[in-house]
Here is the input.
Amino acid sequence: MHSHQPEPLTRQPARPLASIEARGLVKTYPAPGKNPRIRALDGLDLTVEPGTIFALVGPNGAGKSTTVKILTTLAVADEGTATVEGIDVRADPAQARRVIGVVGQRSGADPTATGRENLVLQGHLYGQRSNAAGRRADELLERFALTEAAGRFVRTYSGGLQRRLDVALGLVHRPKVLFLDEPTTGLDPEARAAMWDEIARLAAVDKVTVLLTTHYLDEADRLAGCLAIVDRGRVVAEGEPGRLKQDLDVSSLDEVYLHHAGRRYSDATRLAEGAAR
Amino acid sequence: MTTTIDRERTVAAPGPAFLSDTWYLTGRKLRALVRQPYVLAFSVVQPAIWLFLFGNLFHKVIDIPGFAFHGSYLAYLIPGIVAMNAMSGNMWAGMSMIEEIDRGTLNRFLVTPASRLAIMNATVVEQAVSTTVQTLIIVGLGAAGGARYPGGAVGIVVLIIASILVGVLWGGLSNMTGMLLRSREAIIGVYTFFMLPLMFLSSAFIQPAFMPGWMQAIASRNPLNWEVQIGRDALSAAPDWSAIVVRSGGLLVLALLAVAVSVTTFRSYAKNV
Here is the structure.
């Protein structure tokens, strides 16, 4: 297949290095029976500039999660290349893991441990010594308003509390790039607003590059500097949310979405009509 | 921001990272174990029922001419019940693996630089610790019921080691089944399929001399039976050490194989979640 040629040391990038870069990602999964393999990704390209918030939106099964899995070293692409902070995720996954933080769709926090214990263990896994891990845990507990809940078992946490802990877990090692897979799904409006503020602050204050996937277009509209609509394993539209609306001369991102993920348009209309009746 | 740069330069060497990751991940598992001691205790209930029901129901078996065993039938049963517990207790390893996959915990560890092997190691160490505690509980229950152990502390230690090997063997298989099939039902299926045949095709309940020839042939190749024989030998007044070493070696090889298989399965899982 591919050979990974060593980078010449003197090569200068023509422009500032992108934080996340994916070129021609293809990923197939075996289909049941004798059916041809399912093409989850079909030549997906992506460029995320440092310190920005980038949103991936698209229907279920469009390839958002597969993209995140490949970029976070949890899966290997069949074809194409991907880098985070210039590190090839396939050639050097160990190094890539040091610069990325990941908050998965499902919590991942250990329910039988306390919030603080979860954070300290996470620090240890990034090679922090006990003192440093403890200090960092306390810092994050305070930042995410978890100090009061720090000594309680995670299984007693509310949804919002748990999600804040998840994000804190992703930040233990001060990553340069943070992946958030559906960060506000299942949260109540208040917890959602708090999470939005926190995500915005990560990019603005901490200069962390954030890639998030979401089903909520208002979330993407509000947070993302750049947005990509994914459908059938490819990016079908990409750009600044305001610009995407302008181009189609529409007022809402919903219309942009339905225009580009066109296949779903009739389904969505029918559903909406059905709900209205 | 300088701290960020420093941290990146200090890429941990693989050796110590593997050890410290194993330490911390094992700590997590053991803490959960200590916080839910009733889980451990509850899993011993069934073997304990077997111990006392069989021990009392068949206590006269010991009087059959040719039943070469010095001691009560309860004492005779102990190594078999220990083996049974080691097998059934560690069948749950795969269940907790599935739970951690479903909950996203495993993925959370996999996106960190934590050693892959350490993640699996933590489960093996947890299995060893919980099996040790359970074996001690069964030995204690037996003593309370009047069983005597002429082999003394050394015998009990050997019994514990053998039970750990059986536990790691079944824990490894359970982990593999859990990761491959992602189904709790499959694990229970494998367990119920093997449990009783392996128990009854061993010297757990009766001396092999009383078995039909074909059963004896199977029993001599049954790893669960090796554990029973090791334990019974070690707890006796005059252990046959060479037999103990040979059978323990056999169990060790199988346990290592099971760990290797579950690590391989885990690696292929981790490569494509």
